[in-house]
């Protein structure tokens, strides 16, 4: 199942229970695509996971199983250790996966996902209430993304 980013829109993808601690043995996957068939821009806003064991992967396309499509990760630990925090797809589809082990838990992450075709334009924001649920999650998982600025248009 895909989740569509509205034309000139943005969503937040967050670890389960963020900003509180996520749980052990989480397995989340988000498949993202833009409505306008433009590239996707991912910006990591906040990040704190167990170093080396609780991690995210980011990739191009719609198939997280294809290791050749991976463009970032594994990312774990804290944000200040990352060389980059912004990633742009080479097409209109992108994926994010998050897995944790059975040991320590931390706060997790918040990632802004937006239509890269509109980044940097003068825009007005309109709040919408949309929830993007993760696919392939187990019954106790709460993997989701919240559409905070889900549809914004350039000001006239």
What does this structure look like?
The chain has strands spanning 3-5, 10-14, 27-34, 40-48, 55-60, 70-75, 86-88, 93-99, 108-115, 123-126, 130-133, 144-147, 151-154. The protein is mainly β. The chain has one domain: Spermadhesin, CUB domain (Jelly Rolls, Sandwich). The model is unreliable at 122-142 and 145-156 (pLDDT under 50).
CATH homologous superfamily name? Spermadhesin, CUB domain
Q: What is the number of domains?
A: 1
Mean pLDDT: 79
Strand content: over 45%
Please identify the structural class as seen in this structure: mainly beta
Number-wise, the strands total: 13
DSSP helical segment count: 0
Largest sheet: 6 strands, antiparallel
In CATH terms, what is the architecture?
Sandwich
Shape field: globular
């Amino acid at each position: 199942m895909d989740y569509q980013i509205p034309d000139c829109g943005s969503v937040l993808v967050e670890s389960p229970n963020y900003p509180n601690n996520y749980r052990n043995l989480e397995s989340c996957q988000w498949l993202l695509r833009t409505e306008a068939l433009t590239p996707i821009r991912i910006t990591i806003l906040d990040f704190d996971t167990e170093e080396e064991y609780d991690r995210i992967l980011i990739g191009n396309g719609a198939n997280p199983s294809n290791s050749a499509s991976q463009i970032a990760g594994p990312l774990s630990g804290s944000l200040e250790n990352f060389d980059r925090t912004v990633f742009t797809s080479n097409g209109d589809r992108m994926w994010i996966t998050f897995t944790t082990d059975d040991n320590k838990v931390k706060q997790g992450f918040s990632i802004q996902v937006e239509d890269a075709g509109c980044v940097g334009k003068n825009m007005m924001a309109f709040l919408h209430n949309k929830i993007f649920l993760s696919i392939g999650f187990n019954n106790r998982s709460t993997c989701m993304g919240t559409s905070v600025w889900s549809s914004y248009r350039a000001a006239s």
